[in-house]
Fold:
Amino acid sequence: MQLTETHRPTLDQALEAIRTRAYWSPHPEHPKAYGESAPADGLAAFEALRGTRFDLDQPGTDDWTGGEVSPYGPELGIEYPHPDLDVLLPAMRAGMAGWREAGPETRALVCLEILSRISARTHEFAHAVMHTSGQAFMMAFQAGGPHAQDRGMEAVAYAYAEQVRTPAAADWSKPQGKRDPLELRKTFTTAGRGISLLIGCNTFPTWNGYPGLFASLATGNPVLVKPHPRAVLPLALTVRVAREVLAEAGFDPNLVALAVERPGEGIAKTLAVRPEIKIIDYTGSTAFGDWLEANARQAQVYTEKAGVNTVVVDSTDNYKGMLSNLAFSLSLYSGQMCTTPQNFLIPRDGITTDAGHKSYDEVVGDLAASVGGLLGDDARANALLGALVNPDVKGRLDGAAGLGEVALPSRKITNPEFPNAVVRTPVIVKLDGAKPDTEAVYLTECFGPVSFAVAVDSTADSLELLRRTVRDQGAMTVGAYTTSAETERAIEDVCLDESAQLSLNLTGGVYVNQTAAFSDFHGSGGNPAANAALCDGAFVSNRFRVVEVRRQA
Amino acid sequence: MQLTETHRPTLDQALEAIRTRAYWSPHPEHPKAYGESAPADGLAAFEALRGTRFDLDQPGTDDWTGGEVSPYGPELGIEYPHPDLDVLLPAMRAGMAGWREAGPETRALVCLEILSRISARTHEFAHAVMHTSGQAFMMAFQAGGPHAQDRGMEAVAYAYAEQVRTPAAADWSKPQGKRDPLELRKTFTTAGRGISLLIGCNTFPTWNGYPGLFASLATGNPVLVKPHPRAVLPLALTVRVAREVLAEAGFDPNLVALAVERPGEGIAKTLAVRPEIKIIDYTGSTAFGDWLEANARQAQVYTEKAGVNTVVVDSTDNYKGMLSNLAFSLSLYSGQMCTTPQNFLIPRDGITTDAGHKSYDEVVGDLAASVGGLLGDDARANALLGALVNPDVKGRLDGAAGLGEVALPSRKITNPEFPNAVVRTPVIVKLDGAKPDTEAVYLTECFGPVSFAVAVDSTADSLELLRRTVRDQGAMTVGAYTTSAETERAIEDVCLDESAQLSLNLTGGVYVNQTAAFSDFHGSGGNPAANAALCDGAFVSNRFRVVEVRRQA
Structure:
């Protein structure tokens, strides 16, 4: 395998990108970029997996399990290996020494080869992501393909950079006045910590999974992948590719393995406290994230949990652009992103815009109309909304109408290709922020296509509420619209104080809920929504340790 | 204050040193390097502090407390401010925004100015460290002065390097085919996490305290210093200097403050779970370190706890050098270093040396004789041993003779200058590693001048025991002597697997218990003795978060 020739230039570009944080991506977003036969090949490959046993030739497989049903209706019918942990975990550890000896560069290049082979199969992955997450095809293609691969490569770049900050060897000579200097020869080896556990999520199995997977693998750790039971296939494919590449490159394929649980088994809880597990990456509910942080004491735990995302609406010089930008943010994947805005804080006296003063009711009405217009055509609505990922989301959506005055009711949309898909437009509910009983409503994450237009007394009131929301509930994103430099500064100060990522005055084709690898940080790691950011030094630096050996020279 | 002109070249040198890990120190080790009057001035300054109230002009001082008694006998008689936390903590937070706005470079340079003023007063600090830790003067001077300052500067360098890995701003332009590119202007600000708590230790108040203190301050956090009740003065002086420099540089002096507790108050436990405390640095007992890790869940917790340090004795081509090197390691500061060897694993059939085969009894006897010779002269013994830091150490020493056959009894030494000092030479106890009841003895840390010569069946046996010791008990250091390349490799593998720092075949003027800032890692952070290493990226990267603000361009 010509790892260096093939991938070192890419690694260098990735290292440059994380240094400048300018735009860069090696993975094309356009389906057509993958070749003429790629769409049909990818679909065929996906279809060929259905109704089969997904064998990975892992040690310690004691059963077969799996029951994925696409949010679009069809059962996938795929069975995956169920692990005997007492066999699988020792087998995974066995490859660690060889992987350590390979060193940071070889590990990085092997990871890039894995990503490269995943990239070549992006169409197949897109169908796998679509039929597990409920994302529409184009989003599953982009977010589940190139964007996820970008995040994985970003993690490899950070991991490599962090490991080579310390030289492999140093000669140390300390002057002793007239006497001979003290001299030592020192070597520094980066050593992984142990088995890393990836606990995948339902909505973005690859995008949220790749950073931790590749950060851990690149820093010398075996990675055990425990997918969400509803979204196994994208990560099972990933594990298969990783094992193939590892074996071809002369390493133990068991450095990456899959653990799929039986229904109701709760294997993540068992795994999380196993002494062999030294690192955990998790995306999911706050309740289980908090449990992991409290109980998996033997491991480094990286969590992305829930938050309440806020948009402060103060004023704008592009009213129409603001509305269409926000309408898109609310609609994309039916609001089922951890970065989708939930609360719009709007002064009850209205706001100043380039289209004149707009009352609270007008702003909310215009936002509702903008969402309605965007999703008025069923074909476009299907392409934007995808399907509701699970019945819990539908339950919250159905309950939202009872929470306040409905400014925009949810509409049921039929997907002609998949008639069993549950497709719904977002609901917008009006709430009076001054009423004490509404606070419990909007200060709780309501994951899915539900947002609240909260009437506040003033923008000062918004900022106080924003601060409290981020501090107490956490936030993956904050958005704001203002034409006042003073207000802008005040919003920035809140975000700096409370560690929240801020998007200001977005009116074009970039949305508050989207972040780009190599440039944007996903989460801050500094508020309750997540204890880590994608991706920075802190995300990789504690996944390995530097062991020094010093010898008298 | 000409911060840039004065300190930027030093910062650049420090950055280069952590990149190469070659020898470097800007702080002279020789007492004479500080000027002719420095020794007398330093002593006078120390004496002038005795019997006074150490006022820091901190907000929220509700009482005065302090009861330090020098391990050399004299009471210091100094009273320190006792904090009303509900006043002091908010006052400390108030300075955070201004400190954040200063940016990474200014923060680093202010930290270097603090270190520079501490350096100028090294003689005064030496007496303060000596009369709180019990270190002999020369060690208090070097370890408490230049070596501690080096470690502080190393932390500043890591903190600065970590923060500037992300640029302050980036222009992002994403091509859109024939359409205009998407463009965003992004800013990235490093923001501290909140108040950082330093819980100081008795034996090395400055050396173990400065890394955390300066890492947190340089990354934008206020630092509250909670010294060990027996070792307040060195850190109180540090806080005073820091507050002076901060105020002169135009920042809030309350960014650094002191919290001294009343006898038995246990203020560390109260502070550790306050919501304002976001970072904790701790050096001390395993029990309290484990408590902090389990309970201070709102904070990033960096601990250095206890370990059992092992020396594997397999063979040597410099028997005399090995013996004298080990004798010095055992004697320095009466073995009261977290890095002092405790267990010598020696094959019961003896070892091969350049002076012929040596039986287990001969090796132990020769080591005992070497220690005896080194400490035979009382003046030199006093200069090496210092005083026992507290009655607990003396208790363990007194009890050691009952643990096995004594190869070298402890000897009481009189210090003519300080007749009340408790000065003792180390004890060496022989144990049979094969006897099950001895394991509980040598696999427990026995902090102080007590070491065990453990007879093992073979070097293979040593390695198995070494692995188990590091894995279960932790280790700050591992030493080994071998002339076999194969054995050397096997020892390295154990240390790489279990994340322990290894010194091989030291026979000259470098000792297993000494590490040099900018080059050696102190601890690995990967075994139970400590969850962090001094100093690496992981030690600084989670003390701040990067907050991004992106605006449509």
Remarks:
- Chain B has two domains: 38-305+533-552, 310-504.
- The radius of gyration of chain B is 25 Å.
- Chain B has a mean pLDDT of 97.
